Each structure stands twice: as C-alpha cells, then as structure tokens.
Amino acid sequence: IKKDPKSITGQYLSHKKRISIPEKTRDITKKDLKIKKAKLHNLKNIDVEIPLNAITVITGVSGSGKSTLINDILKKAAFLGVKQRKDKVTFDYGQVEGLSNFEKVISLDQSPIHQTSRADVSTYSDVMPTIRFIYSNLLLAKTKGLKPRHFSYNHLSGMCRNCWGLGYKKVQLQFLPPIKTLCDSCHGQKLNPISLEVKYKNKNVGHILDLTIIEAKDFFVSFAKLTKKLDVLIEVGLGYLKLGQGLNTLSGGEAQRLRLAKELSKRRVNKTLYLFDEPTIGLHFVDIEKLLKIFHKLSDKKNTLIIIEHNLDIIANADYIIDIGKDAGEKGGQIIAKGSPSQIIKNKTSYTSKYLNEYLKK
Questions:
Q1: Which of 3, 62, 57 is closest to 26 using CA atoms?
Q2: How far is CA 37 from CA 54, 88, 94, 334, 347, in A?
Q3: For residue 45, which of 96, 97, 94 has the smallest C-alpha distance?
Q4: CA 166 – CA 32 distance, rounded (Å)
Q5: Residue 172 in 3-state DSSP?
Q6: Distance between CA atoms of 35 and 300, rounded to whole angstroms?
Q7: Rounded distance, CA 328 to CA 344, Å?
Q8: Which residue ranges make up each domain of the chain?
Q9: What is the pLDDT along the chain (362 residues), one digit of tens a residue?
Q10: Domain 121-235 is of which CATH architecture?
Q11: Which of 228, 274, 231 is nearest to 103 (CA)?
C-alpha cells in the first residue's frame, strides 16, 4: 500500500502526505472554565482548568476517567448552567465554574440519532424543505396546484398510499424477522404518481433521494441556499451519503458528524462550548483533515472545544492537552500531564507523551 502511488491511504502511511499541524497555538493563559474536586467513579478529587476559545483534548487510556470528567460532570453542569444562567454549578461529586462565559452548549457523541424510521439524511439536515420548495415552484407543479407538502413523503398529500411513504413494504414471516420488499407502486420513490410526474432536469424527487450529497450539490448548483447546506455536509466528510439514506443505517461516527453539520448550518453563535466524544472513529486521514479544519474555524471564532480523543492527529493539533491516567479503573482518575503538545512531550510518565513525541518526530 505504501508503495502504490495511486493509494491515498498509502501516501499517508508512508508520510508523503501529512495532516498539517499549526505553527502557532492559541492563547491558553485564560483558563476560566474550572472543574473542582471531581470525585465521581474513579476520579481522585481532581481540579482541572480549561482554556477558553481554544481546542482542548482530553487524553488517556480507556477507563482512565475521561468520559466521567467531561460527559458525567462538565456536560451535565454546562447544560444546567447555561439554561439557568449560572456561573457555578455544584454537585456532590464536583463543582464547575466559569459557565457564564458561554451562551450555548453543543454536545456531540457516538450515540444514534433518535428519530423515527421515516427520517433520513435529507430531512434531518433540513435539505428536504428547500428541495420541496424548488419542485413546488416548477411550472408543472403550479399547473397542477401542487404545494411543498405534495413533495413530502411524510405528508398524506405527497406520500405513496401503498407504502405510506416508506418506499418498501414489510412482509411478516412466521418464526422469522419481517423482510422488506420494494413497493410495487412507487418502486422505492416514496411519493404518489402525481408528485412524481414533476421533474427538474429530468429527475423527480424520488430520483433526488438516490443522489449522493456531492451529486446533489452539482445537480442543484443554481440554488445557493441549498448548496450552502450541502457544502457543510461535504465539509464534515459526509459527501458520499445518499440524501434518502435512513438515519438508522448510519454508524456512530456518521451520526455525530451529521449532528455537527446540522449545528454548523444554523446561525452561528459565538461563545459556544462544543463537547466531542471521539469524533474520528471510523474516519480516513482525508476526513480527519477536513474535520480539523472545521475545529480550527470554530475555535478561531471564539468558541471553546473540548474533545475526548485517542487519535494522534487530533492530539497534535490541540492548543491544550489534559492527560488522565496513568492507567484504567482504580489506577486512573488523576491528572498525569497538562499543557501544550510541546510541553506534554517533556513529561516522562505519560503514555500520551511517549506516542505524541514519536508522532511529532516523523
């Protein structure tokens, strides 16, 4: 693989291509977000200070206490503090201060997106309302008196009445799980025959659902509002997904990036606290590079990012690292090292220091 010039993966493995590391890190002197006396699960009554408007990566072996610190203490306190407009939130197992620095908290993890089986990429990312509007404004649609709802497979006005807008029918089998068969009326296109008659560039809405996000961007190139949303999905490395792909088929990493894309396409709010839990799981080097560009953009706009991560590309791009360990369970729960990547590699007891040092020398 390393010797194959056509392989992008090989170029990264042979270090001909590298994920770039910023020459300058952001100012990390203003550590106004503080977690005090954290003692939940295996945490050993630790105090943590996190810089604002920077990228902080929480490292350590699995089971060292990273998720407990960020997801069980900080996240819980942050949502409560921002909602109630409190600067300080106190629990029996710890205290969080500095929450008045944030106007919004966004937490993105690997959990599935809780939507109905009818939800897909186009509906969750808010792309479909614009597509319905485009089709309802075509000449044939206006002649037939069709509105945007007539192009929705989740509305009685638009859905195929044979499969109720699912594109398939379930066949119940005795003693076996049900099987899905293609709807013999709409042939998987989800809409009724009248709505499917309306076409733009010789494609109806059913055909659009079969396009990937990258293909859809080329297809709707004349519609800036729509391509802007599709651009965000491509930015987070989801350009290969089909617009009609069900949310229940996405991996944890894909679901996390889809949530991120949805947040990024909204009106930007600065002074936001972003919490990420291992966002690089299942990502190729190219996708990690795209994700890092977004992280740096967010941080440059005075947002604070806290990322639980094992990936060295992300760790090397951090402004500040907090290494928890040294080991898992009862042998973890302590701060082993903290500082910028250049400071961390000088630590002799940290596992992260050892591997980060080797990575930076390559």
A1: 57
A2: 23, 13, 5, 11, 24
A3: 94
A4: 50
A5: strand
A6: 24
A7: 20
A8: 19-113+250-361, 121-235
A9: 999 989 999 999 998 898 999 888 899 998 999 999 999 999 999 999 999 999 999 999 999 999 999 999 999 999 999 999 999 999 999 999 999 999 999 998 877 787 777 899 999 999 999 999 999 999 999 999 999 999 999 999 999 999 999 999 998 888 888 899 999 999 999 999 999 999 999 999 999 999 999 999 999 999 999 999 999 999 888 999 999 999 989 988 888 889 989 988 887 778 999 999 998 888 889 889 989 999 999 999 999 999 999 999 999 999 999 999 999 999 999 999 999 999 999 999 999 999 999 999 87
A10: Up-down Bundle (1.20)
A11: 274
What 8-state DSSP symbol labels residue 220? T
Radius of gyration of the chain from Cα atoms?
24
Retrieve residue 324's tokens: 């928890």
CB 99, CB 78: distance < 8 Å: yes
Amino acid at residue number 69: L
Strands 88-91 and 94-97: antiparallel
Tokens 């050892």 — which residue? 354
The tokens of 227 are what?
A: 């391509």
Spatial distance between the Cα atoms of 127 and 132, rounded to a whole number of angstroms: 9
Domain 19-113+250-361 has CATH 3.40.50.300: yes
346: Cβ contacts below 8 Å, ≥ 6 apart? 353
Cα–Cα distance, 167 to 183 (Å, whole number): 6
Helix (H) / strand (E) element for 273: namely strand 272-277
Q: How far is CA 300 from the centre of its chain?
A: 19
